[in-house]
Design a protein that fits this description.
190 residues, alpha+beta, three-stranded antiparallel β-sheet, 24% helix, globular, Lipoprotein
């Protein structure tokens, strides 16, 4: 009986990570934790989809330039789009790899294969697009893989329920830039 209790206790410790607050991720399993970018030197310092501008700027610092209304550039290759004062998109651009990565650990410069190891092989198949896209239906809690079946035209409000991590790949299939956003931002640029 004691041996069973010890085994159960050891299993619980390994599953819970001994109380660690750092997020753990599995390929092909998406969650709201995927909607964050973190500072490379301090993984607890994060900017997440839905955060207020004040919360975001506590992490990224002061704006360098407003490239369009509510679309703001910050130092070290990060750009944020705000909708109604909340983060609706996070962009990791050239120059961000030393400072920022996704909560899952992906960063600009990684290869397509490295991205698939982190996120899994259930991505939206867009042959020849030069993008590696992971769409997540937050309402039904599932990854979407078929653009014709899974992404019918929707209202802007419905499009907010679809989250995505999109990576633009260069000619050598390395991440040129990455975006964490909802489908409303992707479709309507809003």
């Amino acid at each position: 009986m004691k041996r069973t209790g010890l085994l159960v206790g050891a299993l619980l410790l390994s599953v819970t990570g001994c109380g660690s607050e750092e997020a753990s991720f599995e390929p092909n399993v998406f969650s709201e934790k995927d909607m964050c970018a973190v500072k490379a030197e301090n993984l607890k310092s994060q900017i997440c989809y839905g955060a207020s501008r004040e919360e975001a700027e506590a992490v990224v610092g002061n704006a360098v330039e407003e490239v369009a209304p509510n679309h703001v550039s910050y130092e070290n290759g990060i750009r944020v789009f705000y909708r109604d004062g909340q983060v609706a998109a996070i962009e990791l651009l050239e120059g961000s790899a030393e400072q920022y990565q996704t909560a899952r650990g992906a960063k600009v410069g990684m290869s397509r294969e490295e991205m698939i190891k982190l996120y899994g092989d259930q991505y939206m198949d867009s042959p020849g697009s030069g993008f590696l896209d992971y769409f997540y239906d937050s309402e039904n809690e599932k990854l979407l893989t078929d653009p014709k079946q899974d992404l019918p035209p929707r209202s802007q409000e419905d499009a907010e329920k679809i989250r995505l991590v999109s990576t633009k790949l260069d000619a050598d299939e390395h991440a040129e830039y990455m975006m964490i956003m909802d489908r409303r931002r992707a479709m309507y640029m809003d």
